[in-house]
Amino acid sequence: MTNKEISGQFSSLAKLMDIHGENTFKAKSYTNAAFAIGKLPFEIEEVGIEALEDQYGIGKGIINSVLEMMDDGELAALQEIKSKTPDGVIELLSIRGIGPKKIGQLWKELEIDSPGALLYACTENRLTALKGFGVKTQDTFQEKLEHYFSNKGSLLWSQAEELVPSIREMLKSLF
User: Fold this and answer.
1) Entry pTM
2) 167 burial via Cβ count (<10 Å: 0-12, 13-18, 19+)
3) Rounded CA gap, 175 and 168, in Å?
4) Long-range contacts of residues 108-111, Cβ cutoff 8 Å, at least 24 apart
């Protein structure tokens, strides 16, 4: 398992904990761990788990979680919190500019559980009724969502480039 994958799981866990309103200090520690592991100059798999002991922001609990990820592929805590979260709410996390705390508030107070539902709420002007949401925030969310839907299904060049060898092999076998 790469550092990027480990970091991604810690980051996802922290964001989902924020959405559910769980312990903010624990969520922050997972965010810090994600950042620290993402910036390591070495791969944990290559060097060994012992190398984490000297790293700032990584304690015994995080090291145990990394071991669990390496053994099982995913944290049990992440699996558990994902099971309590609708897929649409998790999809909202992939939209830039919409943070986990706002998503949690929208989900709990307006029962918005998907990007489509959020866009509909924006067009109906329902977000401004919530504390912390004004017209500017609603308009920003609407722009972000329209951009998200217009680019959904598109690939970045770097993503498409990864597919080229398999496509080339498939075409060679066909012709």
Assistant:
1) 0.80
2) exposed
3) 11
4) 108/21
